[in-house]
Amino acid sequence: MSVSWALPFEQKIIPKKGASKLVDINTYKEIHSQTVKEYRNFWASVASELEWFKPWEKVLDDSNPPFYKWFVGGEINASYLAVDRHAKSWRKNKVAILWEGEPVDERGNPKEVRKLTYHDLYKEVNRVAYLLKEKYKLKKGDTIAIYLPMIPELPIFMLAAARLGVVFTVVFSGFSADALANRINDAEAKLVVTADGGWRRGKIVELKQIVDKALEKTPTVKDVIVVRRTGHKVNMMEGRDKYFDEVIKDIPQNVYVEPERLKSEDPLYILYTSGTTGKPKGIVHDIGGYETLLHATMRWVFDIRDDDIYWCTADIGWVTGHSYIVFGPLTEGATTVMYEGALDYPQPDRWVSIIERHSVTILYTSPTAIRTFMKFGEEWVKKHDTSTVRLIHSVGEPINPEAQDWMWKLVGREEIPFGSTWWMTETGGIMISHLPGLYLIPMKPGTNGMPIMGVEADVVNDDGKPSNLEDRGYLVIKNPWPGMPLTIYKDPERYVKVYWSKFPGMFYAGDYAVKDRDGYFWILGRADEVIKVSGHRLGTYELESALIEHPAVAEAAVVGVPDPVKGEVPYAFVVLRSGQTPSQQLTQEILKTVREKVGPIAVVDKVFFVSKLPKTRSGKIMRRVVKAVVTKAEVGDITTLEDEASVDEVKKAYEEFK
Ligand code: ATP
Ligand code: MG
């Protein structure tokens, strides 16, 4: 079936600022197809811009697909690339990590701001590496779990582990004891690094308590290091738990731990996916391929330069933070901003105040964050000077053109590049994006642009054949790329089954997409979140995007509910913007907007008003949870759920209606 809905915009935007190499679409496609044809040589030339201890012998070992190995024979170290190179160069006094804590003084300014130069970072990473190696006897191939709030010790421990070839798994500091225990056990971590607590929305997150509870069922953990952050009293188990300041204090300031010469295809970390659609998968990333992709995308997508103040608003607990707060920017010698707490606390303008305070030039954020900012209104944004920002990208979910437009006007001054980068935990780095730092094609709001150089992505139908232009299909990647997973940890069969079995020889992303007439990609959301109404297939995102276009609506989740006549009917759960109240009339207006935007078959059957939606901790709507509530099914794994009260809200709204 061809698409029943119009693509939200055919409008093209040519940024006036911050994009140096604008090209027309055909030129881009020509250059792109060359890099795809020659992808091995192409990626080899990118990889050669990194520093290798020993050059690779083979660019790609494809003898055992889909377990590909990149830059085989090469020796490399991610900690060396991110720290040593810059600390030994003119960048040594350049700020590497610019951090601010959550608590504010009476004037609303953060009480603590830490600026670690590359030299500082080098010293700290070496000392922690020494601690792990000499005192805790950790060695290459061992695994540790890191459960820290957003404080500089988090990247420091990641980089120290990477220096030794110790595989780390970062667990987002909002997760429950069960979620933490599952990840520790799956990864067989020997050591856990945590803090006494972390600050979030004026409260202490009791990290140590959660660790204590998790560790009741984690036989592999022998030691716990506790960073003092909040300073309140926590339980310390004799023999197992040590305060970080106490174990590190005797280690000299100038110790040097030689970075291990690791194989390119050695594992760097294990990271569990967000769990939006089901049980999280332990994705294992390599070093050489991963670093190559990050190096490329930091330049092409973010156009990173030495005078930039670069801020990715994600949490390091997600892949976005791994790749684009820690390893990507630091490998490029950039200044990367980190903050503790929330973007809208203590005031809705925390995020814009960070931009102003630190003169942020590049902003990488998410649709869920932008929709939250919109909910509070533009007055909060206008209180601050954001004119330093020269480039914006978004990630995590499809960006509805409404939200993109709002942000582009307010912060982007209608002149800078603003794209939506598509990728996932599995891909390691950005795969589909506009490339303002390389060759920029005219941008279209709501799209993801085109596959980056060297990556062959496509939209295919059920037979695995390319879909017609403007037809919805499945997003696939057709050639191996550096940064691809090594496997799912301890479950190679699941790796093959989930990603490589639907279409032989292609990586199946699980997302639903459209390629438009110009060849731009529109990633529409999960392929399994499709509603079939009277034989028509509607993506939940299309309906949600239309709902959000109504000025009273801040957020929406649509799910399909079985219906004896139509097969399925869409129900919408809606969060209103501040100052709006639910009413019959509003419901009618909202439904009218959807009909106008998506067409007559898109009849949303019911609208429910709630004050919050079930989301993952990374801010993605968990439609499967909403659906489970209305269909009275098993809710399933909700360890990654942000706030259990949101499920009760959905239940209540639904029950009241009945
Ligand atoms: P799980 O795989 O455990 O269900 P998850 O897919 O949410 O969780 P992530 O790897 O964090 O975990 O997210 C990747 C997904 O996010 C992609 O598959 C896609 O659905 C969505 N996504 C990311 N960026 C974009 C974007 N720019 N546009 C549209 N969708 C995006
Ligand atoms: Mg996924």
Automatic annotation (TrEMBL):
The keyword Transport does not apply. It comes from the Archaea. Residues 28-81 form the Acetyl-coenzyme A synthetase N-terminal domain. GO terms for molecular function: 3-hydroxypropionyl-CoA synthetase activity; acetate-CoA ligase activity; AMP binding; ATP binding. Keywords: ATP-binding, Ligase, Nucleotide-binding. Gene3D superfamilies: 3.30.300.30, N-terminal domain of ligase-like. It catalyses: 3-hydroxypropanoate + ATP + CoA = 3-hydroxypropanoyl-CoA + AMP + diphosphate. InterPro entries: Ac_CoA_lig, ACAS_N, AMP-bd_C, AMP-bd_C_sf, AMP-binding_CS, AMP-dep_synth/lig_dom, ANL_N_sf. Pfam families: ACAS_N, AMP-binding, AMP-binding_C. Its EC number is 6.2.1.1. Residues 542-620 form the AMP-binding enzyme C-terminal domain. Residues 85-481 form the AMP-dependent synthetase/ligase domain. GO terms for biological process: acetyl-CoA biosynthetic process from acetate; carbon fixation by 3-hydroxypropionate cycle. Belongs to the ATP-dependent AMP-binding enzyme family. Plays a role in the autotrophic CO(2) fixation pathway. Activates 3-hydroxypropionate to its CoA ester. Can also activate propionate, and to a lesser extent acrylate, acetate and butyrate. NCBIfam families: Ac_CoA_lig_AcsA, PRK00174.1. This is Acetate--CoA ligase. It comes from Sulfolobus acidocaldarius (strain ATCC 33909 / DSM 639 / JCM 8929 / NBRC 15157 / NCIMB 11770).
